[in-house]
């Protein structure tokens, strides 16, 4: 018996010695790597609790509850520099608004960073193994499927979008030109994008929208809120037990699956023909419709892969485009002089039917859109996790100019919202709405409204075309936008940035 106890104790001691040795060897190897590259530790956010980061977490939650999380980030960077670390849940996070650090993470050292298990686990109930949650070969394969489909989705005469915008303007008229446009933008963008993605609009803009359409709309909202909550919980994600969240994810998946089945049937019917001869159906007006999902089905017959991709596309397209449109009208309603210049620019270049070339000629409108994307980037904060020990050329030291060692599994969180408001890049009035700055402004990595590097948003041209077209049609139809809400904007920060207080306004039609 005594011998057995001695043996167990020896084995336990050997086990502990082995693991302590591994930790010490890992620490030494990382120390040598950092020393070899001349790395210096970055600045640290002062914390009362440096291990679990309870004080930081409570600060974040409190600021978010008061619609001020982004302002909190901005103040932290002003006090602690462009790059600093925080410790939460026994995990180190590198916070940055330095374009050189961001470029290294997103492009120059792309293969050293990925989404990481935290992001995958938080988003997988809704997004599955879609393009926004995967890494490596799986992500590359999915990107290879999506890019050609978006490349073919090029507007020319905008026939489908024209009909859809007519319906959008009709809804405004039926509401006597007074409503919350953000709610309408979300419904409108979901309608138009389900048309392009599936070949069939969900029909949310109809006064008698079906129960299934409304259910999907609310399910998307709730599932997205649950996803961002899971991400904020981090390592405590296991505590998230919400039956409504699970049901909302199932509702979204079921809706997408119906169209996946149709796309696979399209694939089966055309399987005997060369792919280039597969034709999309024509709508009741005789226009041949481009169906994104059918383009994907030309490349794969995996129903789960197809479903996950279109769910990712639905969320990305709806929230970013609707947010861009909402912030644009929100600001134009508060700056009547900018609206007047925008409208004059649109009318000078307007034609029927509205073409892509005509939109490109609307220079001031482009400045307005760029200024909105600067002040209110669709993805205000983002992150990547190191998948190996690596060194970034900048970000270390008190001034952030020394090389920075990033250990495996450490997270780099970057804020485009903060970076886009840096005065050294955008002038002393960087916090102000002034589209004219884009007349001479030239930017690179300090302006990233659609991300950068290999993961740059594949649908950015589509989103910009849709948003620009919509604002141009509104400028043609309405001579004035009157704000019915004089409060400052309040952030609604989920997977993307929108307005918590909506866009309440009255539109004055041009009867000439």
Descriptive notes:
- Keywords: Heme, Iron, Membrane, Metal-binding, Monooxygenase, Oxidoreductase, Transmembrane, Transmembrane helix.
- The chain crosses the membrane at residues 6-27.
- It is a single-pass membrane protein.
- Belongs to the cytochrome P450 family.
- This is Cytochrome P450 alkane hydroxylase.
- A hairpin with a 2-residue loop joins strand 2 and strand 3.
- Helix 9 crosses helix 10 (243-270) and helix 13 packs across helix 15.
- The strands form four sheets. The chain has a six-stranded mixed β-sheet with strand order 1-2-3-9-6-4, sandwiched between helices.
- The N and C termini lie far apart (101 Å).
- The chain is built from 18 helices and 13 strands.
- The chain is α+β, with helices and mostly antiparallel strands.
- The chain has a domain at 1-36.
- It has helices spanning 2-36, 54-65, 69-80, 99-108, 116-127, 136-151, 159-174, 181-198, 211-233, 243-270, 292-297, 303-334, 336-349, 356-360, 363-375, 416-419, 423-426, 460-477, and strands spanning 43-44, 83-88, 91-96, 113-114, 178-180, 381-386, 390-396, 402-406, 411-415, 478-483, 491-493, 497-499, 504-509.
- The model has no long low-confidence stretch (mean pLDDT 88).
């Amino acid at each position: 018996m005594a011998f057995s106890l001695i043996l167990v104790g020896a084995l336990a001691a050997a086990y502990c010695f082995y693991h302590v040795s591994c930790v010490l060897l890992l620490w030494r190897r990382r120390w040598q790597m950092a020393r070899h590259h001349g790395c210096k530790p970055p600045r640290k956010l002062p914390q009362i609790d440096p291990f679990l980061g309870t004080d930081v977490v409570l600060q974040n939650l409190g600021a978010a509850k008061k619609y001020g999380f982004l302002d909190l980030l901005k103040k932290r960077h002003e006090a602690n520099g462009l790059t600093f670390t925080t410790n939460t849940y026994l995990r180190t996070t590198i916070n940055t608004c330095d374009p050189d650090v961001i470029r290294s993470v997103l492009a120059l050292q792309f293969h050293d960073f990925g989404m990481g298990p935290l992001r995958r686990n938080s988003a997988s109930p809704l997004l599955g193994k879609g393009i926004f949650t995967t890494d490596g070969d799986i992500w590359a394969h999915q990107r290879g499927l999506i890019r050609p489909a978006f490349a073919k989705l090029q507007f020319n005469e905008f026939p489908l979008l024209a009909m859809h915008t007519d319906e959008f303007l009709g809804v405004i008229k039926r509401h006597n030109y007074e409503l919350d446009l953000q709610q309408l933008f979300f419904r409108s963008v979901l309608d138009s994008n389900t048309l392009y993605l599936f070949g069939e609009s969900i029909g949310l803009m109809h006064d008698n929208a079906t129960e299934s359409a409304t259910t999907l709309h609310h399910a998307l909202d709730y599932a997205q809120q649950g996803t961002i909550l899971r991400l904020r919980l981090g390592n405590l994600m296991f505590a998230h037990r919400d039956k409504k969240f699970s049901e909302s994810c199932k509702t979204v998946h079921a809706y997408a699956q119906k169209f996946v089945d149709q796309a696979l049937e399209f694939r089966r019917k055309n399987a005997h023909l060369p792919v280039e001869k597969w034709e999309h159906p024509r709508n009741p007006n005789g226009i041949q419709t481009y169906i994104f999902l059918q383009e994907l089905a030309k490349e794969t017959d995996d129903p789960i892969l197809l479903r996950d991709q279109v769910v990712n596309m639905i969320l990305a397209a709806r929230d970013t485009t609707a947010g861009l449109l909402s912030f644009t009208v929100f600001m134009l309603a508060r700056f009547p002089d900018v609206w007047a210049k925008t409208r004059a620019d649109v009318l000078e270049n307007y034609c029927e039917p509205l073409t892509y070339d005509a939109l490109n000629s609307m220079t001031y409108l482009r400045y307005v859109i760029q200024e909105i994307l600067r002040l209110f980037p669709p993805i205000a904060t983002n992150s990547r996790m190191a998948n190996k020990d690596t060194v970034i050329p900048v970000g270390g030291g008190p001034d952030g100019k020394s090389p920075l060692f990033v250990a495996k599994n450490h997270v780099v969180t970057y804020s485009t919202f903060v970076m886009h408001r840096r005065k050294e890049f955008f002038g002393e009035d960087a916090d102000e709405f002034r589209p004219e700055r884009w007349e001479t402004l030239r930017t690179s990595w300090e302006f990233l409204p659609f991300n950068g590097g290999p993961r740059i948003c594949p649908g950015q041209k589509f989103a910009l075309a849709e948003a620009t077209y919509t604002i141009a049609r509104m400028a043609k139809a309405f001579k004035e936008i009157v704000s019915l809400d004089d409060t400052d904007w309040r952030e609604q920060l989920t997977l993307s940035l929108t307005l918590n207080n909506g866009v309440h306004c009255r539109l004055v039609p041009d009867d000439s």
